Amino acid sequence: MSDWPDGATACARYRVVHETRYRYQSTVTLSQQYLHMTPRPFAWQQTESQLIWLDPVISEGKDGIDYFGNSVRHVALTVPHDSLLVHAESTLLLRARPGLAAIAASLPWESVRDMMGKEKSATTLEACRYLYASPHVKWFAELEAYARASFTPGRPQLDAALDLTQRIFDDFEFDSKATEISTPLEQVLRGRRGVCQDFAQLMIGCLRSIGLPARYISGYILTHPPEGKPRLVGADASHAWVSVYCPALGWIDFDPTNRCLVQHEHITLGWGRDFSDVTPMRGIVLGGGRQDLDVQVTVTPLPLPGQV
């Protein structure tokens, strides 16, 4: 737990199981995959244990760190196979993040905008990489217009960001069939429908369009079964949200899909400019033909250390 401040204590503990299974129409003779499936330790999250295994067993593997500091794993499978299972399992500790009272005292958003490119501290320079257009987050005039309804003159930056979070929730409908990975933001904004990835990238585009750094967070969220019903294995899901750079507080996370300031029910895998930087799994295969994909995620609350 060396990344945590001295004396920091955990407020939540989870086990996350993420299984991705491909079934192929014909035999795959070679598969190379690039995995972003190792949760990232940082100020609000630490890892107790973590493992990844594949079936069939990998022929070659190499761990590394990507440009954004996320843990990655390159694997190669040279044994012919008709299906591929990737099982990632982690146990994590989370500590409490800043609440609504802390974000209310942030600087006016124009002051933060004007700091970018002028302030030379390491943290601000690092934040600058999240100021610009990226493969899935392009700029256009309608994004800025949508953002400015929240970012009115002199408004505290994080208060405005929370308002933008709430407006996206109110104005857009969650619809898993409305978009695909490649759906452009113009279509999302026009259609007012999409999924968590779309809403996160929409909010990021709004923030960058007015000169504020924002990064894409890939991870998981704890879901709650109906009252009196058991927690179902595999019923949780991968999730995405937004992190906003605040000079005084660091990076503060907002979830437009769930209209909330992120606290201790969001588990972070990693971050980048947009979805393309932190796709949980991508790669190439030789053979296979048509493929069927099944993803199951289970997030289980656990007792804190020392509790029964």
UniProtKB/TrEMBL annotation:
Residues 188-258 form the Transglutaminase-like domain. GO terms for molecular function: peptidase activity. SUPFAM superfamilies: Cysteine proteinases. The keyword Hydrolase applies. The keyword Protease applies. Keywords: Hydrolase, Protease. GO terms for biological process: proteolysis. Pfam families: Bact_transglu_N (PF08379), Transglut_core (PF01841). It comes from the Bacteria. This is Transglutaminase-like enzyme, putative cysteine protease. It comes from Janthinobacterium psychrotolerans.
